[in-house]
Amino acid sequence: VLIDSRLDVPLEAKILQGEPPIIFTVAEAARKRHRLADMGAEVVDAPVDPAKPGKTDLMAIARMLGERGFNEVTVETGGNLMGSLLVSGVVDELVIYYAPMLIGNSGQGLFALPAITSLDEALRPRIVDVRAVGDDWRVTARFGE
What we know:
Shape: globular
Strand order of the largest sheet: 1-2-3
Radius of gyration: 17 Å
Order of helices and strands: EEHEHHEEE
Strand content: 15-25%
Mean pLDDT: 92
Low-confidence stretches: none
Distance between the termini: 27 Å
Largest sheet: 3 strands, parallel
Number of helices: 3
């Protein structure tokens, strides 16, 4: 499954090389849609997020995936989409791998989240597991328990 609001996925992307993906988008881009369909991808019109014109409604996509029989979805993404997924409330568990590296302020954040004005607004998952995986640490946290 690929969420791509603007349908920016390159036609040579690895995700298009294996089992044909489902691509949720709000982009019109008829020519690109046809090319992706010719490659086997299913391009699905996603509902637009009423609060973010031009972006997909992530809660609606979660419902659509549920209707298709997806009970669990593993997400690998950058900080922007991950932040949006967290804010939309569709994430119930995080599994984060930490490498033993300190990279300072120039490092990219895990989640692009709106600024908070008090700690009461912070997202507070419950840590359910921490374990070493080789030299890294895996932290599993859950929301809503």
